[in-house]
Amino acid sequence: MSLMAIMIGRLEMNIDECIAVYGDLVTAIFDRINLQDNGQLQFNMEGLQTIIQNLIEKSGASRDALLNDGWERRCKTYVFS
Amino acid sequence: MSEDASSQLFQKCLVNTHTANSLPVQKGLFTRLRCLPLAITQATAYIKENAISVGEYLLLFNKKVDEFGYILSESHKEHGHSEMYLVGVTWLLSLEQIRRRDSLAAEYLSFMVCVEPNDIPQSLLPLGPSQKEQMDAMAVLSAYSLISTHADGKTFDIHRLVHLAAREWFETEGVLVGLMENAMTRMEEAFPNSNHENRSLWRTYLPHARYLLKSDIVKNHHSTRTNFMWRYGMCLCADERWNEAESSIRRVLETRQKVLGEYHRDTLAAMDALASIYRNQGQLVEAEKLDAQAMKIRGAQLDLLNGAGFCMLSLNSGGVVRGLSSLYILKHIMNWLNHDRKKAKLHAVKPCEVFDLIGGTGTGG
Fold it and tell me: Which CATH number applies to B176-301?
């Protein structure tokens, strides 16, 4: 849910954009899952990072943008996990 | 004070003694000033600063007495206020000299006369063209023994008698109202808001603000003063001085109702503040009444986008599918909020334009 908060709060997406991007994101993540020999699922961390960076870039911010880029926005965003 | 003591004080204040002063002339001065320490200190400072003789000062003094004494004689002499009258004359002589020498110092003096005479913080004084000139101006006032500086070097006192005499003089001159208005304007500009990090600042400003507001001279009801009155009232609330806070916040509310109207968010904020003051005072009925009134106004608006108060959105953890479902719930909320806007052909707002705070926790996106 942290990602959603960032998408609609910090990246200022509208709700339809957010749903579409979220769908892509989920597909992209689950396509990269490997089933290991011991039956555990393994996620590809590097892949996730690229996906998220692409997502950020698409919304107009730079790949390495910080959560707090110093701009005073009307809407504040926080996340924790 | 005895003549001997006066003489000692005189010598002490006059470091580089002007030798032209014979003892009898000095005595003449002491007698004239009735050995009043404050008057002697001021006279000595004047003599020292302007490098004149005691005789010359006496001449100036006698001339001023005719001017000043006659004003004060009516109202104060008979009440045993002759001290104020003497101090008034020595003060007036100094003021005229200061006006010629340093206009900022004269402005400071006028300001100090309009606020509480004790514990005047330097930061409250009107701003000069540069910090150096501000310090110079304070040095001039110190040199004339008109103010005393606290150990911290940033707080000043003006003697109560000087304060009283000066007010009397300015009032007779007809300039006190203008000076008080100026001081009030400076106060409005300098007074902090009630953020807790400003507490020590507002504590030093409060007595002076109170002094200005207490006088009937300043037009408190002026609508431009509302912002200041609001900050003042909220600081009093933060200090839990409910009775004082009540009168200022009530005034703010009345002005805002008139100027901004019942429905404005600032009017509602004042209403909430006053209700909370009433509650703290134990006036529960009054508080309830005001709360109900505010609630009615808010209910009548029913427009969640009006910006009164804060809107928060919290997205809680719950896995991928539940994550998606909360986005759909949000979509419904947004559609509902945008319904009227669409009809009015306004652009649909995004969640970040409605919510003031958006938070997300945990996994699931």
Answer: 1.25.40.10
